[in-house]
């Protein structure tokens, strides 16, 4: 698991990197046919054809792999048959075949390889990599991923490459976990999580190298607001180049730096024990 450098045969190749895919079991294997569905592109447009998310469009064709985020197949041993690449996420996925013949994809943590055995259960499981169990059964100090926010809903936290949460404490039906951002949050202790740190941690070190690779990902070019006309953006206009003339804002006029974006009336606000540290005008503030 690491990155591979290209020879500088062109300006785009110079400095560009790719993953070495060393953890992939078989690079020629196609995804499990029963676990893929078509991935429809929207171009950032809603049902009326209006653009609601900018800078989206194009990109390589891909199929969506159905991932088992719920891990609700209890007390049945599964064997990992392949570690595969998933174009829809940064981490790798593992194809698991259970004793009854059913196959499912799960997120692949570090240390999980072809031939590994995993299981999900409410009780009686060892906290080894790949096993899924409620937070109330996981020892404190253990690294977990794919953490649920509501029991039975499926994992929603810590699903990217190289990330994990740490179980800190448990009391009165709640478990306290530290997220990768530094935020400490309370989660119902009956929520499930999977043991281990997600693999492909070197993903964050990859240098794209050229603009074309970004287009392959389905991202269109971004134009600075200060380069637009005043009719198109609040930061636009001015004689020659100017450095703004006001605090940076979004196309709708909302402050782009330093403003709080979280809804203060969000119900899950009460579950946050300690907020993450955010950088605001060069200073660390809670």
UniProtKB/TrEMBL annotation:
Residues 44-120 form the Large ribosomal subunit protein uL2 RNA-binding domain. Keywords: Ribonucleoprotein, Ribosomal protein, RNA-binding, rRNA-binding. Residues 257-271 have a biased composition (Basic residues). Pfam families: Ribosomal_L2_C (PF03947), Ribosomal_L2_N (PF00181). Residues 227-271 are annotated as: Disordered. GO terms for molecular function: rRNA binding; structural constituent of ribosome; transferase activity. Residues 127-255 form the Large ribosomal subunit protein uL2 C-terminal domain. The keyword Ribosomal protein applies. One of its GO terms (cellular component) is large ribosomal subunit. InterPro entries: NA-bd_OB-fold (IPR012340), Rib_uL2_dom2 (IPR014722), Ribosomal_uL2 (IPR002171), Ribosomal_uL2_bac/org-type (IPR005880), Ribosomal_uL2_C (IPR022669), Ribosomal_uL2_dom3 (IPR014726), Ribosomal_uL2_RNA-bd_dom (IPR022666), Translation_prot_SH3-like_sf (IPR008991). Gene3D superfamilies: 2.30.30.30, Nucleic acid-binding proteins (2.40.50.140), Ribosomal protein L2, domain 3 (4.10.950.10). GO terms for biological process: cytoplasmic translation. NCBIfam families: rplB_bact. One of the primary rRNA binding proteins. Required for association of the 30S and 50S subunits to form the 70S ribosome, for tRNA binding and peptide bond formation. It has been suggested to have peptidyltransferase activity; this is somewhat controversial. Makes several contacts with the 16S rRNA in the 70S ribosome. Part of the 50S ribosomal subunit. Forms a bridge to the 30S subunit in the 70S ribosome. Belongs to the universal ribosomal protein uL2 family. This is Large ribosomal subunit protein uL2. It comes from Planctopirus limnophila (strain ATCC 43296 / DSM 3776 / IFAM 1008 / Mu 290).
